[in-house]
Specification:
Strand content: 5-15%
Largest sheet: 2 strands, antiparallel
Helix content: 25-40%
Shape: extended
Low-confidence stretches: none
Amino acid sequence: MPGPFRLTRIPTLKTVADFRNHIASLGIELPCEDAILTGTASPLAQPVSSLRVNGKAMGNRYAIQPMEGWDGTLTGGVTDEVRRRWQRFGESGAKLIYGGEAMAVRPDGRANPNQLIIIEQNKKDLAELREILVRAHSDLH
């Protein structure tokens, strides 16, 4: 029977060589780069010409999938916190924001008491979230 399991925390691996030696000791083949490219040189910042959405190539490889923030009103409406979060999605520079926030379709179907609800009285504010996001993203250019 093998000896006790020894956990190596990734942050303790201070160099690329340390990381490569560790994964090799585990019998794992996991290629990695010698340096992390940042800014416009980062692979994530490069366009994805092969992926088209509504006929447009993706401008970079950053994506956001909004999740529920537990920050709506008790009636399932939008709050300033929700608006600020969606503005930040737009300001992030991500070129793909997909899905949308988890929302209930009826009050008794909510996952939490502050989840947004898609009902007539919230329709205008829910549409405003997309406008906030698009405006914030447009302001980057």
